[in-house]
Design goal:
This protein is of the alpha+beta class. It has 12 helices and 12 strands. It comes from Prevotella micans F0438.
């Protein structure tokens, strides 16, 4: 089953577009999946004229693909939170990545002109909470040009951003799920508050990118190249290729690659590689199958003291202390 959609003028129209393809209609700002297709629901809430909260929870009986088509100049910007425990595939052009609540890419915010699609395995429960805001709200703020999100939107350049779901976000997301499933008399008011809180936390996290002063006008090829480089890094964590070598693989200059990588992934290449190495080290230690020195050598450190210091700086605990705490 394939469900196709795109950014449109009103979020309400999006719900109608999707419901029709499921063979049903919208009632009370949502719809239930027909029993012949699967189970679950799609539901929207409207906290403010410029903000929509969408909560999706479904299971399909057959494989499903959702396709987001490219549209130019849409004012509506989605912030999608992958809250399902089952990971699924997100496809951008020829690049495929695995996303879910516990991945480093648990959130993504795209402009409307870069297409993407998601594939869902049958008979597995999937959930998604999306905040969709009208960019006029940001652009009309007096301080818009002083914020990362304001500069990004005012630039009118295409973008594709990823972020990680933080513990604070997870707490709010859990609250949204609980409230949405309740019939309490003031649940809509609670949901409105949670939506504002979640958006605020996300924008504050995004603001940490504010040191990026120039914004690349990314196209689909740029995004695909960044994913190729990301995959190469993940495949070679114990001996990460040099920037010039990665740039050759991306068919970009070193400076353009570093700029595009940080814009898409949210971290500089070196910072990203280090974070992945340290997460790998933590996973290895958690198995209790390796000593600290074995883990250090396994992830590419010839000097054990260098590994210990890097681990301490990243995780705020020495690897031996972490191992002993397990």
């Amino acid at each position: 089953m394939i469900i196709e959609f795109c950014a449109i003028n009103k979020p309400e129209d999006w719900m109608e577009m999707v419901a029709e393809q499921f063979g049903t209609s919208v009632t009370d700002n949502g719809f239930t999946i027909p029993p012949s297709v699967g189970s679950g629901f799609f539901k929207q809430y409207y906290p403010l004229p410029w903000l929509t909260l969408t909560y999706i929870s479904f299971m399909a009986y057959e494989p499903m693909t959702m396709v987001r088509r490219s549209v130019e100049n849409s004012k509506w910007i989605p912030v999608m939170f992958y809250i399902n425990e089952h990971k699924h595939e997100q496809i951008i052009g020829t690049s495929t990545k695995t996303v879910g609540v516990d991945t480093l890419d648990g959130i993504f915010m795209p402009s409307s002109n870069i297409p993407t699609e998601w594939t869902f395995a049958p008979k597995r429960q999937y959930e998604n909470i999306t905040l969709t805001f009208n960019k006029d709200w940001i652009e009309q703020m007096d301080t818009a040009h002083e914020t990362y999100i304001g500069r990004l939107l005012l630039s009118d350049k295409s973008f594709y951003l990823f972020e990680t779901i933080t513990p604070a976000m997870q707490q709010v997301l859990d609250g949204i799920k609980a409230i949405a499933k309740s019939n309490a008399p003031f649940s809509p008011l609670h949901l409105h508050g949670k939506a504002i809180e979640l958006l605020t936390i996300f924008l504050e996290k995004l603001e940490k990118r504010s040191e990026v002063k120039s914004l690349s006008n990314l196209n689909l090829n740029d995004v695909e190249a960044v994913f190729r480089v990301r995959r190469r890094i993940l495949q070679s964590l114990n001996n990460v290729p040099s920037i010039p070598e990665l740039a050759r693989e991306a068919a970009m200059s070193s400076s353009k690659l570093q700029k595009c990588f940080k814009q898409v992934i949210g971290k500089a290449i070196a910072e990203y590689a280090l974070s992945e190495k340290m997460e790998w080290a933590k996973r290895l230690l958690s198995t209790r199958l390796y000593s600290v020195s074995e883990v250090g050598y396994k992830i590419g450190y010839a000097n054990l003291s260098h590994f210990t210091e890097a681990f301490r700086k990243y995780h705020r605990i020495k690897p031996k202390q972490y191992l002993d705490s397990l």
